[in-house]
Specification:
Layout (H helix, E strand, L loop, with lengths): L36 H12 L4 H29 L3 E5 L4 E5 L5 H7 L9 H14 L5 E12 L5 E3 L4 E3 L2 H6 L5 E8 L2 H13 L1 H29 L3 E8 L10 H8 L1 H5 L2 E2 L5 E2 L3 E10 L2 H17 L6
Helix pairs in contact: 3-7, 4-7, 6-7
């Protein structure tokens, strides 16, 4: 895992919290206005008393403008107030679940702290970065189940898209299975923009954002693995072998994403040089091993016990 060091930061520099977006109530002047009968009568009286038509038109235009703002602002604020959600597309349905947006402990590992704790000053900076990055994270994932085809020469091909997998590492990874889950996960392009902007102004915060984003995409990946296990209990779910890992060619990435229609479904593509956009995205292959009958029966009994105790995995 990458380890980062931090450049000195001016301890006298005040942290600017003005960029943090917070939910708020709309001011009265921006709320939609609905005239009562009495108010209508009052306006008629005002006109009768000599109020100019041009002034009246001006007020109407201002009201319309305010109403437009009131219509748009609640939607914008809702994006900030909404709980963390992961969208999981299975090809059959779109599902959403609440989950933490970042894993702070894992992020500290990416920052190079290991088992150590940051000092009070760095802790405050990290907490600030967490508050700033969380509204930007929109976690999405998609997967499809595919058969694994092996020919007489040992060549491995995924039935979905007829994708050939080359390399000894992926061959070993899939040696025990006949099906796989083709997966892709992301946390949105807004996170990329935040990291890029901060790297120009404050390299320390840029590195912290990057570590937090890495921990966030890991949470999305793990969440998808849990869902696959829950939706396909007949299989033992392995781990996600990333495209480009080991000696599996990174050039497989673009056709892999196109088979999944990742850009249309969750907005993930490559830039033409085998780099994923958004940058904080991952794609890979999870091995699925069919469970033995004895194992299935034992798991069904465990699930039954969990259901009774209320500890089973739920949506």
């Amino acid at each position: 895992m990458p380890k980062f060091t931090f450049s000195p930061r001016d301890p006298n520099k005040k942290v600017d919290l003005s960029s943090i977006r917070r939910g708020r109530e709309l001011p009265d002047e921006l709320k939609p206005k609905h005239d009562s009968v009495e108010e209508v009568a009052k306006k008629i009286a005002e006109v009768a008393e000599g109020e100019s038509e041009s002034s009246k038109e001006g007020e109407d235009k201002e009201d319309a403008s305010n109403n437009d703002d009131a219509d748009s602002n609640p939607r914008e604020e809702a994006k900030v107030k909404a709980p963390a959600q992961t969208t999981v597309a299975t090809g059959q349905a779109i599902l959403k679940t609440n989950q933490p947006k970042v894993d702070l402990q894992n992020a500290l590992y990416y920052m190079g702290y290991g088992g150590r704790k940051p000092d009070a000053y760095m802790s405050s900076v990290i907490e600030e970065c967490v508050r700033e990055i969380e509204p930007k994270i929109i976690a999405k994932s998609y997967y499809e189940i595919s058969d694994v085809i092996r020919d007489e020469e040992g060549k491995i091909t995924l039935a979905n898209g007829n994708l050939e997998l080359t390399g000894t590492s992926i061959e070993e990874h899939l040696s025990h299975c006949s099906k796989v889950a083709m997966c892709v996960e992301t946390i949105s392009e807004e996170v990329d923009k935040l990291i890029e902007a901060s790297q120009q102004d404050d390299i320390t915060k840029g590195l912290i954002y990057d570590a937090l984003a890495n921990s966030a995409i890991e949470l999305v990946r793990k969440d998808l693995e849990k869902r696959i296990a829950a939706e396909h209990p007949e299989y033992k779910v392995g781990w996600q072998f990333g495209i480009g890992y080991g000696d599996l060619p990174i050039t497989l990435l673009d056709p892999f994403l196109k088979v999944l229609k990742a850009e249309e479904r969750i907005g993930v593509k490559t830039n033409g040089s085998d780099i994923m956009i958004p940058l904080k995205s991952v794609a890979g292959i999870i091995d699925l091993t069919e469970k033995e009958p004895e194992a299935k029966e034992a798991e069904e009994e465990d699930n039954s016990s969990s259901d009774e105790s209320g500890e089973s995995y739920t949506e």
